[in-house]
């Protein structure tokens, strides 16, 4: 029982860390642009701890489901307030107010949150690559008996560089190309001692749905340097961003399996606890995945999310038209209420129809 509670605590701390780096991005860029941050909060709901700094109150709140920066002049959709002064005209004249800043400055302040999540994900993936002692490459270490690759003439020491003319760098690229081919014959190009050789291969089908392989054991890049691990981390973030956008595309077009692919706070905690039990590397890897998804989710053009503000500031920069802060506030409030409603629905779904883990 005690160990289970510890795993839950680890899971909550892991998620809070992702929120922290997100909000830290907003905070740093806001301060660099001269915006006063009245409160820097981790969590939502009632305060359980706070510290009043020279200009900012730093607080931890009861519910570990998010966080925020309360900037002077920023409309707060959660409670309908704006900083210390509800007079937008006065706030626009205050050099420390968000409303006094140019659109490009406000755009950068909002974009800094998701950007920090992507940077955090790169660092976390790099930690996993170093902690695991290496990562798989597309070099051929050996071939399994009677495998498609062996029968086609691929040899140990070859390095796979293209599938059907598309460049591949890591095993994930290869799997993605084989998945797109759906079991049909593919053209595999390899680098063999500086020469490029081409082979037509029909992949073997694995046990899992959509799992195809060529039948070789990849070379492991052992004990990568920090630079190699970071480079691999950049790749993994780009790959996960694409997969996350593909998921949202499937979700909005009705192709996604909502029952087993959509989860809320309960699912996040359950999965985090399971990863914590499996070891710290598993938990860090899951944190990296969550950090990418948090970044992508936040840039969706939905009012009350960062993406809603980014779209607004981009619109104002292009059209040079200003939308009144009162209208923005009303839109944000509606967006916030919709998001809270969705969170309640997803949480109920988590409880009644949990995602299979």
UniProtKB/TrEMBL annotation:
**Gene Ontology MF terms in the entry:** metal ion binding; metalloendopeptidase activity
Q: What is its EC number?
A: 3.4.24.-
What is the name of the protein in this document?
Zinc metalloprotease
Q: List where in the cell it is found.
A: Membrane
Indicate yes or no for the key word Metal-binding.
Answer: yes
PDZ domain span: 140-194
Q: Which SMART domains match?
A: PDZ
What's the main place this protein lives? membrane
Keyword annotations:
Hydrolase, Membrane, Metal-binding, Metalloprotease, Protease, Transmembrane, Transmembrane helix, Zinc
Keyword Metal-binding among UniProt keywords: yes
Q: Which family does it belong to?
A: Belongs to the peptidase M50B family.
Membrane-spanning ranges: 6-29, 107-132, 283-316, 328-348
Single GO cellular component term: membrane
What processes does the entry annotate via GO biological process terms?
proteolysis
Pfam families per record = PDZ_6, Peptidase_M50
| Cofactor names | Zn(2+)
Please tell me the species this chain comes from. Answer: Clostridium cellulovorans (strain ATCC 35296 / DSM 3052 / OCM 3 / 743B)
Membrane topology term reads: Multi-pass membrane protein
Q: What class of enzyme is it?
A: hydrolase
């Amino acid at each position: 029982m005690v160990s289970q509670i510890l795993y839950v605590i680890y899971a909550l701390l892991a998620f809070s860390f992702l929120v922290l780096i997100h909000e830290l991005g907003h905070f740093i860029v806001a301060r660099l642009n001269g915006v006063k941050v009245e409160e820097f909060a981790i969590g939502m709901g009632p305060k359980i701890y706070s510290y009043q700094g020279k200009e900012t109150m730093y607080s931890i709140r009861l519910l570990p489901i998010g966080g925020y920066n309360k900037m002077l002049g920023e409309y707060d959709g959660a409670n309908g307030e704006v900083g210390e002064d509800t007079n937008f005209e006065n706030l626009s004249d205050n050099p420390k107010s968000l409303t006094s800043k140019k659109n490009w400055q406000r755009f950068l302040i909002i974009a800094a949150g998701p950007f920090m999540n992507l940077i955090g994900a790169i660092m976390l993936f790099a930690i996993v690559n170093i902690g695991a002692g290496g990562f798989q490459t597309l070099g051929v270490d050996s071939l399994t008996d009677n495998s498609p690759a062996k029968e086609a003439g691929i040899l140990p020491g070859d390095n796979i560089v293209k599938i059907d003319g598309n460049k591949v760098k890591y095993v994930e690229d290869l799997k993605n190309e084989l998945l797109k081919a759906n079991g049909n014959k593919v053209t595999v190009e390899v680098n063999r001692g500086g020469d490029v050789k081409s082979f037509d291969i029909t992949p073997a089908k694995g046990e899992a749905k959509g799992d195809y392989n060529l039948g070789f054991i990849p070379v492991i890049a052992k004990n990568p340097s920090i630079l190699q691990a970071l480079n691999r981390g950049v790749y993994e973030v780009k790959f996960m961003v694409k997969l996350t956008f593909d998921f949202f595309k499937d979700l909005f077009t009705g192709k996604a399996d909502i029952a087993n692919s959509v989860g809320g706070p309960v699912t996040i905690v359950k999965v985090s606890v399971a990863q914590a039990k499996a070891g710290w590397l598993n938990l860090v890897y899951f944190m990296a995945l969550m950090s990418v998804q948090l970044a992508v989710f936040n840039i969706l053009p939905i009012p009350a999310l960062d993406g809603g503000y980014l779209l607004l500031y981009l619109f104002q920069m292009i059209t040079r038209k200003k939308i009144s802060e009162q209208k923005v506030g009303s839109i944000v409030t509606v967006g916030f209420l919709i998001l809270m409603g969705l969170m309640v629905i997803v949480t109920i779904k988590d409880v009644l129809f949990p995602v299979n883990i």
